């Protein structure tokens, strides 16, 4: 016969249970009031595993105090480290530190012995007494027995830390208030552009010996702001905090807040970068305004919006995603771009340097546009002064690159004139526009020709002037050399223009040949003259072909600033922009991949074709990337694989 | 107005139909055009050389610089072919490049030069040809026989690389697509005699593009979004006849999906690339070739390849280029057999040397 357990609920069990629970709650509120300290248990050994946290804290506090007092009473004060060996922190003291400190700072402290000491000195670690003023150590003395001592924080620094970690004194000096600005200026606050890069960045901060000192500043500012700590010196601390705040930028403070609060967990650390809207970062000054400038100029109808107008526009961009589809500046590229939400994600994962305009609409040699993007990203050098369409930046940088590595013979575009005196045609290598006053700039070439043929002064300089800005009636145009060009018909290698010198047209200068270059080699003999060869052999970038998803994923994981460049058929890369109308049709388009996005087992890449604006990447699936390169390989003269990783 | 209700759409799970690869006696990379029966093939014989290969003869009839390649296009009228000679394909990546445009009679090798431009297309019984000048932003139309020429200058626009689609429906009416400075696409009719244009259809949203194709007695206007833009898609059917009313179009298909389009018009049906699944964050789409039957506007999915981006229409054969291969969706796939065909036509015979 089956019997019910004795305590099985009867029909009135709900009432009884409710009464019992209510009674228990009332009773417990009497027993476990949060505002009175627990009574110290009879023994101070740590109790079993299941105890209230409050009880543990109380026990630890009592134990620490008792131990410190014992050691001080018995005169166990540490003198110097030279006469002892096996110096360690006492385990109970260590337990106390772990119990009372934030998990992030414990993780920082656990990197190395010197990290641990630094986190103590910077008040990031706490013990039962709050900020650590006394350290309990254990060591083996001269007679070989192990004993413990208490040491003041000041003595800890001079007698232990300075001996075992000599770098610490330098760091303390570096982070004095008078030196803080320089210390922060010299530190790179790297913004990661992908999950894998973010893990590397987070790990590097954990290993950085300056991190405890930076977090100390953050904690100091937070404490002053919240009014925590000793109320007696709060006013003074707040005054110091105001001085410190002026020495650190807003974006550095935000970065430190994210870092110091998430030292123990890279996931929330990375979310701040990867999941926060890119437009928030622009508004906060963490990213360049160029990403939103053209879009906002168009949206607001103002050529140069000020900060307040820009912020207003950025707020709109987060709500009206279509605002990013078109922009009407000279820097625009393939349109429409992706919408603001997708663009924010793409830019969060992007690492290509893109803080300058390079006007892809002005490029008629996209290979050079792509090469220059790689060069300026790797060199980080400033964009030199230029005249004409901003696509001359690509032409000028690429020319200097080829010239530097003795490949200027591949540069066939020339401006020529008939030298009647010597009865021959004289030609100079050139590109349209002016860049860095390079001798091959069209402005310089024309000036040289005028000096040779029209007796122009040695100091004659030619200027590029857009046709809409040219007015022959104005005095400024009555003398001097001007190259009047039509902006919509002026590219790197061809340009509808006229030359005016001292108010007279010059029409005897002819342009010969074209800007044909091998991006990847098209013949075996010509391999050495291809742009990819120059990048990987002469410019010394490490380049390797990447022909499957596994190798690309590993490549991005390994290198913080990984970049991939390639050439593919536009019909497969962006099928809605390029339509196949016949068999064998392939429009070669160079592109750069500088970020990877993973979702479950799907992978996509942050991609900029050379026709896209530098500030407007796209998110392209691996499937499209594979198709585009495979199709181009089919039609390439050497059937080579045209997808290379560069680092 | 008849349009497809998506609930009635016959888009049942496509059987795993494996499409045959396109096989010819020539290397696939070298074929630029081949007829359905394989009798005539325009083949890139060597770099810069286009040849006509028939059953019994081979003629190199265009020789250009070694870096040149070719595009050969037909039309539904099958009287002529338009050829574009693309200079420096692998040396100059130029979005404004102008190709040499020529025409040849069907199956012949005697060329006639037309001009410089891109997107050459034959119209009106192959008597007219249109092409686009990407620098001047002008559509050029030329009668091949009389050599009468017309030009339509497009307005300045935000998309610097835009190229229009063109369809000629009568000898004095040409339709084309354009976009304005705000990014709205439009389907426009232009009268060559009066030089006046009329907007027939204007896209309700920015960032969509219009495609045109026609075959026989109809024209289809397709509206599809650009890559990376979330918009729906539609196909508008216009019957062509003695008194065509371009504005009297019927919506043959409408969907909230961001289809790729790239449509091809056959006599009885229209093929286009339809999006089956789409992840906006990842920029990835699962796409298949879909066929819209014109009789009843029923839609069928014809492939299960999951990643299709283009359809190529070549003498009523529909090809799908995919990762370096061509697969045949409609038409004969295997042209590689050596069986002797029926008596050769005069075009194919070797000239007698006596």
Question: Describe it for me?
Answer:
- The complex is a heterodimer of chains A (647) and B (354).
- Chain A has 647 residues and is an alpha+beta fold.
- Chain A has five domains: 55-174, no CATH class; 179-274, no CATH class; 278-348, no CATH class; 412-512, no CATH class; 518-646, no CATH class.
- Helices cover 42% and strands 16% of the residues of chain A.
- Chain A contains 24 helices and 20 strands.
- A six-stranded antiparallel beta sheet of chain A has the order 15-20-16-17-18-19, with helices on both faces. Chain A has a four-stranded mixed beta sheet with strand order 10-11-12-13.
- In chain A, helix 2 (53-73) packs across helix 3 (91-100).
- Chain B has 354 residues and is mainly beta.
- Chain B folds into two domains: 22-153, TolB, C-terminal domain (Neuraminidase, 6 Propeller), CATH 2.120.10.30; 158-332, Methylamine Dehydrogenase, Chain H.
- Chain B has strands spanning 23-24, 31-34, 41-46, 49-53, 58-63, 69-73, 80-86, 99-105, 111-123, 128-133, 138-143, 149-153, 166-170, 173-179, 184-191, 196-206, 208-215, 218-225, 233-239, 250-255, 261-265, 269-279, 284-293, 298-301, 312-314, 317-322, 325-330, 334-335.
- In chain B, strand 14 and strand 15 form a beta hairpin.
- The relative contact order of chain B is 0.14.
- Mean pLDDT of chain B is 89; it is low at 1-15.
- At the A-B interface, strand 17, strand 18, strand 19 and helix 24 of A face strand 2, strand 6 and strand 26 of B.
């Amino acid at each position: 016969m089956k019997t019910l357990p004795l305590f099985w609920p009867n029909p009135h069990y709900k009432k009884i249970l409710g009464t019992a629970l209510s009674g228990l709650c009332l009773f417990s509120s009497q027993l476990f009031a949060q505002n009175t300290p627990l009574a110290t248990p009879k023994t101070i050994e740590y109790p079993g595993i299941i105890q209230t946290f409050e009880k543990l804290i109380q026990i630890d506090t009592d134990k620490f105090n008792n131990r410190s007092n014992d050691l001080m009473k018995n005169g166990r004060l540490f003198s110097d480290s030279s006469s002892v060996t096996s110096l360690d922190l006492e385990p109970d003291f260590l337990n106390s530190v772990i119990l009372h400190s934030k998990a992030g700072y414990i993780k920082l402290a656990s990197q190395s012995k010197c990290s641990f000491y630094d986190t103590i000195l910077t008040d990031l670690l706490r013990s039962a007494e709050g900020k650590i003023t006394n350290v309990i150590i254990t060591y083996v003395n001269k007679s070989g027995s192990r004993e413990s001592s208490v040491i003041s924080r000041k003595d800890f620094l001079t007698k232990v830390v300075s001996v075992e970690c000599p770098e610490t004194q330098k760091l303390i000096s570096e982070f004095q208030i008078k030196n803080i600005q320089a210390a922060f200026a010299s530190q790179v606050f790297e913004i990661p552009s992908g999950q894998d890069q973010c893990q590397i960045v987070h790990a590097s901060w954990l290993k950085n010996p300056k991190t405890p000192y930076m977090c100390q500043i953050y904690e100091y500012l937070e404490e002053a702001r919240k009014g925590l700590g000793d109320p007696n010196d709060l006013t003074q601390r707040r005054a110091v905090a105001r001085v410190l705040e002026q020495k650190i930028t807003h974006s550095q403070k935000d970065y430190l807040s994210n870092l110091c609060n998430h030292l123990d967990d890279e996931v929330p650390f990375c979310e701040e970068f990867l999941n926060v809207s890119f437009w928030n970062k622009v508004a906060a000054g963490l990213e360049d305004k160029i990403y939103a400038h053209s879009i906002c100029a168009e949206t607001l109808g103002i050529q140069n919006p000020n900060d307040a107008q820009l912020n207003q526009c950025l707020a709109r961009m987060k709500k009206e995603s279509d605002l990013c589809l078109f922009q009407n500046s000279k820097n625009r590229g393939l349109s429409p771009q992706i919408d603001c939400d997708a663009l924010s994600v793409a830019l969060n994962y992007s690492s290509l340097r893109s803080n300058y305009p390079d006007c892809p609409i002005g490029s008629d040699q996209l290979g050079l546009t792509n090469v220059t993007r790689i060069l300026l990203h790797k060199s980080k050098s400033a964009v030199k002064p230029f005249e004409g369409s901003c696509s001359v930046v690509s032409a000028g940088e690429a020319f200097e690159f080829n010239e530097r590595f003795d490949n200027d013979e591949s540069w066939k575009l020339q401006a020529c004139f008939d030298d009647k005196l010597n009865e021959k045609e004289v030609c100079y290598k050139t590109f349209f526009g002016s860049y860095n006053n390079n001798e091959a700039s069209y402005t310089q070439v024309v000036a040289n020709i005028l000096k040779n043929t029209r007796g122009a002064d040695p100091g004659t300089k030619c200027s590029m002037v857009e046709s809409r800005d040219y007015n022959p009636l104005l005095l400024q145009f009555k003398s001097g050399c001007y190259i009047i060009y039509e902006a919509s018909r002026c590219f790197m290698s061809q340009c509808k223009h006229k030359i005016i010198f001292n108010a007279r047209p010059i029409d005897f200068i002819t342009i010969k040949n074209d800007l044909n270059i091998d991006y990847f080699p098209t013949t075996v003999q010509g391999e050495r003259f291809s742009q990819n060869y120059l990048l990987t052999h002469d410019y010394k970038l490490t380049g390797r072909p990447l022909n499957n998803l596994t190798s690309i994923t590993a490549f991005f994981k390994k290198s913080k600033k990984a970049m991939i460049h390639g050439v593919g058929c536009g019909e497969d890369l962006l099928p809605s922009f390029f339509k196949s109308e016949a068999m064998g049709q392939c429009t070669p388009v160079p592109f750069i991949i500088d970020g990877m996005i993973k979702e479950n087992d799907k992978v996509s890449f942050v991609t900029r074709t050379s026709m896209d604006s530098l500030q407007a990447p796209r998110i392209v699936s691996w499937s499209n990337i594979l198709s585009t390169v495979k199709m181009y390989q089919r039609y390439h003269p050497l059937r080579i694989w045209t997808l290379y990783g560069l680092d | 107005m008849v349009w497809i209700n998506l609930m009635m759409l016959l888009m049942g799970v496509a059987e795993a139909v494996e499409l045959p690869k396109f096989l010819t006696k020539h290397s696939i990379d070298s074929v630029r055009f081949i007829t359905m029966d394989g009798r005539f093939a325009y083949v890139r014989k060597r770099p810069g050389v286009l040849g006509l290969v028939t059953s019994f003869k081979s003629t190199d009839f265009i020789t250009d610089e070694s870096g040149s390649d070719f595009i050969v296009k037909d039309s539904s009228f099958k009287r002529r072919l338009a050829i574009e000679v693309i200079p420096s394909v692998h040396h100059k990546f130029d979005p404004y490049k102008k190709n040499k445009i020529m025409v040849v009679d069907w199956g012949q090798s005697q060329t006639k030069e037309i001009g410089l431009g891109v997107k050459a297309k034959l119209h009106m019984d192959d008597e007219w040809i249109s092409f686009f000048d990407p620098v001047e932003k002008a559509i050029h139309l030329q009668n091949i026989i009389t050599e009468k020429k017309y030009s339509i200058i497009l307005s300045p626009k935000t998309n610097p690389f835009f190229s229009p689609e063109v369809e000629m429906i009568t000898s004095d009416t040409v339709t084309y697509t354009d976009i304005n400075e705000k990014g709205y696409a439009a389907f426009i009719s232009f009268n060559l005699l009066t030089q006046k244009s009329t907007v027939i259809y204007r896209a309700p949203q920015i960032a969509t593009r219009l495609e045109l194709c026609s075959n026989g007695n109809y024209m289809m206007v397709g509206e599809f979004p650009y890559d990376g833009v979330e918009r729906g898609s539609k196909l508008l059917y216009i019957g062509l006849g003695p008194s065509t009313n371009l504005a009297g179009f019927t919506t043959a298909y409408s969907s909230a999906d961001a289809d790729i389009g790239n449509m091809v018009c056959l006599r009885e049906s229209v093929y286009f690339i339809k999006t089956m699944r789409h992840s906006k964050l990842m920029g990835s789409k699962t796409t298949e070739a879909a066929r819209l039957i014109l009789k009843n506007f029923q839609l069928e999915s014809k492939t299960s390849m999951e990643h299709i981006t283009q359809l190529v229409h070549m003498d009523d054969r529909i090809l799908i280029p995919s990762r370096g291969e061509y697969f045949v969706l409609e038409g004969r796939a295997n042209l590689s057999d050596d069986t002797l065909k029926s008596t050769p036509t005069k075009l194919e015979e070797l000239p007698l040397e006596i």
